[in-house]
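QA checklist item 7 of 12: single-chain prediction sanity check.
[x] sequence parsed
[x] length recorded as 437
[x] structure emitted
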Amino acid sequence: MSEALTIPKSPFRIANFRAYWVARLCMTLAQYAMLLIIGWQTYNLAREGGMSVGGASGQLALIGLLQFAPLFILTPFSGLAADRLDRRNVARLTILLQLACAGVLAWLTYTDAVSIGAMFGVAVALGVARAFSGPSLGALAPNLVPPALLPQAIALSSISWQVGMIVGPAVGGYFYEVAPFLPYAVAGGLFVVSIIALSLIGEVPRSQINRTLKPIGQIREGLAYVVQNKMVLGSITLDLFAVFLAGATALFPVYARDILQVGAPGLSQLAMAPAIGAAVTALWFSFRPLKHNVGPRMLWAVAIFGVATIVFGLSTWMPLSLVMLFIIGCADMFSVYIRQSLIQLHTPDDKRGRVSAVSQMTISASNEFGDFFSGGLAFLIGPVAAVVLGGVGAVITVATWSQIFPVLRTTKTFDRPDHLVEEDNTSDSPSRETKGA
């Protein structure tokens, strides 16, 4: 039987991938349910402690910073762990740490002993868990499916993340109304399911890291690969600068209250619109994976992201704003789908953990520091000008990157480079195409 006939038609026909998908969905649901309540409790504690609205908002910013700092510091080491150690075990340990955080917060909330200091400590622990879970789970996915199914698997994996991001806060808010400790208890249960699902993933073949190098040398090897591979470097930095400049999420409260005047219900709609657009796009690609002109289409998607941001910034009509945010979510997921597929397919398996760690760090930097940048710019020139200028910056980034990294506009398919195909053919990787099916 030919190799083409042995490849399943969908990643969901592979048992290992099904378990992986369930694990990631449950983990994401739990994370976002917790994050909503952590922010809510921190803000309320600060206000009840006598802080002004500005001071209490600053506590929320500090929560975000405390989560990002461990990720930034630990990125080189978390990527190395994903390449040196069993990625399933690394992921299970990170989820176990998050389970412990959920248990602590559930107990403190139930006994009415929760404090801002406890929230800060949990934020750091969650940042550590996130630093190690991202690279391990990101690098694990390509080990579970054959290369031909990887773009489809990335789309399905994105769906699990988007669904978790949309449904998780609703789960947290609903259960908080029932009992304040309940969101953490439910999150703990979801973390347990996630650990069990990861434990159902059988042993998967993978390439061995270059162990002739010391750990510091292995870290440098991973960073050097990112810098030297123009496809990987161009894809990662395109997202970094475009989202950093055009991120409008931090200014949603300003638009909801003072520009669109839609209040708290409208704020929820603004937050959900891009997530829904991203989920719809990911669902589409899970059934109709992209095959042609992938590089140019990624550039066009980022350009559309920037243009839609400009229109959103100028809009004073809620329906138009929601449509633009939906388009922003679609365009962002379109580029994410292509970018992640290209990065994974253009990276040798023995370096995927370190490259995934760099990618995760830049994504977090563009999102969280992008919010800080847009907020600071809004303070200086006003929110509308800040959003519009950010959208213009994203369009300029696309034009610039298409010249600096011509490989981005000349890449037509997701086909792996010849030297990586040869590595696949000389390793035991073909066995993973049917393993667990």
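[x] summary fact logged: The radius of gyration is 21 Å.
[ ] second reviewer sign-off
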